[in-house]
């Protein structure tokens, strides 16, 4: 497990690929916008012309892409990675994607003799840079063990949660709870500001008290300082909550709170924060 190809070099993917490169793996990279690969190429990675070019001869191919459409294109589209992979190689998709697509991709990989894991992560940019991600792994347990050195390089833990699609499902559940908390946090901070409460003291009380989950503690500071340097982009939370709503609905669970939270993130995107951090969900609610 030495020759690793990484497909998708966004905020998360670039940091994850850099961890692998810095720790001695032979890394090949590809990104739709080729300029995103330049820092890694300068650091010693090989630039692939296409996903298929990157996948040939790789021991493992890891993808970190924004949505189902991007993932499908990169794995199975023209010059897609899957058709070029060697039998016995390992395919890992770490994006936040739908359960249905991950199960379909797993079946396509199996038909080609390729092992597949859906392995989305918890954590954002700082955790990716520090190698502190947690991988939620769906797929064959033996394949998960094969991938353990990769997970250990990019993260602090991997948890095998069941067959293909299981990692994707748990990640959607995770992001559902995160999205709802952050939308409500934005509403709370906005109410404090509109009412004349000291925002810093309000934030400190919320973070220290019962509402102070890890994500609240992490994001409330960005809301107070209005620092929306991207760690997790607003439109990606809209996408995640859309996948969540559809997934739960298929199981007979209607998510009124997820729908309300999604509207808050849609409002932030429409207000010009589509390229900013999810903490910007508070901005359309401010009155200054």
Q: What distance lies between the first and last C-alpha atoms, to the nearest angstrom?
A: 54 Å
The CATH architecture of the largest domain comes to: 3-Layer(aba) Sandwich
CATH class of the largest domain: Alpha Beta
State mean pLDDT (0 to 100 scale): 97
Sheet/helix structural class: alpha/beta
Strand content: 5-15%
CATH topology of the largest domain: Rossmann fold
User: How many beta-strand elements?
Assistant: 9
CATH superfamily of the largest domain: NAD(P)-binding Rossmann-like Domain
- Level of helix content? 40-55%
Main sheet overview: 9 strands, mixed
Overview of the structural elements:
The chain is of the alpha/beta class and 288 residues long. The protein folds into two domains: 160 residues, NAD(P)-binding Rossmann-like Domain (Rossmann fold); 116 residues, Orthogonal Bundle (N-(1-d-carboxylethyl)-l-norvaline Dehydrogenase, domain 2). Strands 1, 2, 3, 4, 5, 6, 7, 8 and 9 form a nine-stranded mixed β-sheet that branches. Strand 5, helix 5 and strand 6 form a beta-alpha-beta unit. Helix 12 packs antiparallel against helix 13. The longest helix is centred in the middle third of the chain and has 30 residues. It is globular.
């Amino acid at each position: 497990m030495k020759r690793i190809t990484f497909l998708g070099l966004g905020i998360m993917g670039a940091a994850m690929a850099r961890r692998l490169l810095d720790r001695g793996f032979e890394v090949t990279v590809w990104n739709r916008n080729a300029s995103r690969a330049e820092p890694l190429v300068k650091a010693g990675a090989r630039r692939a012309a296409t996903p298929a070019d990157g996948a040939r001869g790789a021991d493992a191919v890891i993808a970190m892409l924004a949505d189902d459409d991007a993932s499908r294109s990169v794995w199975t589209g023209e010059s897609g990675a899957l058709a070029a992979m060697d039998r016995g190689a390992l395919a890992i998709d770490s994006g936040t994607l739908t359960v249905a697509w991950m199960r379909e991709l797993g079946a396509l990989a199996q038909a080609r003799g390729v092992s597949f894991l859906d392995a989305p992560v918890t954590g954002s940019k700082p955790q990716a840079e520090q190698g502190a991600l947690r991988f939620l792994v769906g797929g064959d347990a033996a394949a998960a063990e094969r991938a353990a050195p990769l997970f250990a390089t990019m993260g602090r833990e991997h948890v095998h949660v069941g067959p293909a699609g299981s990692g994707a499902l748990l990640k959607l559940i995770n992001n559902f709870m995160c999205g709802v908390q952050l939308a409500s946090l934005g509403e709370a901070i906005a109410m404090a500001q509109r009412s004349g409460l000291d925002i810093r003291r309000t934030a400190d009380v919320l973070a220290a008290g019962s509402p102070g989950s890890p994500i609240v503690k992490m994001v409330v500071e960005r809301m107070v300082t209005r620092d929306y340097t991207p760690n997790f982009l607003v439109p990606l939370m809209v996408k995640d909550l859309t996948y969540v709503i559809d997934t739960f609905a298929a199981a007979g669970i209607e998510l009124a709170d997820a729908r309300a939270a999604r509207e808050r993130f849609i409002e932030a995107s429409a207000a010009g924060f589509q390229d900013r951090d999810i903490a910007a969900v508070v901005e359309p609610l401010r009155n200054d």
